[in-house]
Every structure is written in structure tokens, then in C-alpha cells.
User: Fold this.
Amino acid sequence: MLRGLTVSTLVHASVLAMAVLSWPHKKSDCQRMIERIEREEPGLAPVDILMRLPQCASVIDVPVDFVEIGLVTDIAPIQKAEEPEKQEEAVPEEVEETPAPEPDEVSAPEEEEVVIPDEEAEPEEAPKKEEPKKEEPPKKKEEPKLIEKQKPKKDDDNLDFLNDFENILKDKAKTERRAAPEEEPPRIDKPVLKDVQQTRQGAGDRRGNTASLQAAMRRQIYVCWRGVSDLPKEDQIDVEMRVELNRDGSLKGNVELVTPRSRPVGRSGIAVDVALRAVRKCAPYQLPEDDYDQWKDITVSIGPTAK
Assistant:
């Protein structure tokens, strides 16, 4: 019973497999393209088809050629590139140095024949050359004769000489005193006193000019001064300050308090701060350069009643 069932199962399975294999199935795109190329170009090698359709490499059957490998490899020897023949460097021909022509031997001067005069013949008198007149040497100036120093005499003579010398000096001093005129004391003329009065008047003018400079500077400071009207009346104080300025009107140093001498405690100190801040804020100041000596160190007052 079991044997018949097994045989029946195998027969049916084989029939079903043959039916599936023989049943026509749908071709892929690669197969259709390969068949079209084979129809258009019959005899085309599979390798060429693979080169045209690389995406269908899994479908194309490419034959593989097996090459037998021998025991000894026949490899052509490596041919080295022929090195260019080095051209022989042309050796410069040695130029034969022609020896310099030897200088002609200097012919020895011919010896002049010396004629021996006859003893009997009297020698002719040679013409006398005019002797140049000898210039007379300039007369030497007579050198002053050195006065011989007198030999020191005895001690008594020396004492007499010193006494005489002292007497001469005393007489000379007396004559000079008599000859010197008595100097009169300088007199003070009236025009000099007038000049003194004029200079005093100039000092007064300078004080007036300083006051005008202080007023000009105060007007400029009030532009930056915000006032102290918000403070109580007893704290609205005038602040007097000493200011040092450069020639261009800028501040030279710190502003120094004159009145009050230091910042007071309380709301009065706010008035001092407002005045100091205004002086620093309005710099540089426009003042006449010709009067720089008067306003380079100037005192100015700021406040509700400052003048």
C-alpha cells in the first residue's frame, strides 16, 4: 500500500514538473534585446553583446577560455632602451705657442778713438765762463744783546731795593687817587617818574581786561551749565574755580576749587559738581590768543548770582 502511494506521488510530481518547464513564460527585457541584436547581426560574439549591454551581464553566457599554464614561463626578456651614444667631446687642439721674437742684441757702443794730444802743442785756452755775481747775503738783523743779569749783591742791597720799590708803589697809588674824578650819584629825572605812573595805569587796564576775559569765559560755560534751580535755595551756591588752559583753549590740568575750598557734604555738593562738569564739557574755549598770558591761568565763578 505504501509503495503504491510513493510511486504515484513521484509520477505525479514528475508530470507536474515537465508541465511547468514546457509551459511558455514571459521573456525579460534583456533577453528580448539580446535576441534582437542576434537577429540584426548574426554571428556576433557574446563578448561584443556584453560590451553593448553591460546591464544584461547576468543573462549573457560568455564562454571562458581555459589556458594551459606550462611549467616554464615563456616571458620575453625586458629590452632596455638603448642609451644614446655619448658623442666624444671635441678636444681643443693645442695651439702651438710661437716663441716671441728675441730682441735684437743691443750692439755695444763703438769705442771712440781717443786722440792723444802732442805734448809740445800748447793747449788752447778755454773761453772763460762768466762767473755769476754772487748775491750778497741779506744783512742779519742785529740780535738784541742780552742784558746780563746783575749778580745778587749782599743782603743789605736787597733790602734797600725792596724799600725803594714799596715807596714807588705808594706814590703811584696817591697819584691815581688824585686823578680819578669823583662820581656823582645818579639823578632821577621827572620823565622817569612819569613812566612809573604810566605803568601803574597799565596794570589797572590789565585788571579790567582780565575781568572781560572772565566774563567771556563765563558766557561760554553757561551754555553747558544746567543750573541748580531744582535744589533748595540755601544749596544754590556760587562756585569759584581756578582753570589752567593751553594756548588752543583746552584744559591744561584739573580744575581747582577756590570757593568753596572742597566739595561740601549734602546738596550743596551737587551745585559744585554741576559747575565742574560744565567747565570740562565746554572746553576748548574761544579766547583771544594775544592775551594768552592773562587767561592761561584764570579764575571764574559759576552760580545763580555769580558775576
In short: Strands lie at 239-244, 256-259, 297-302. Residues 180-205 have pLDDT under 50 and may be disordered. The helical segments are 2-22, 29-40, 46-52, 155-179, 190-224, 268-282, 292-295.
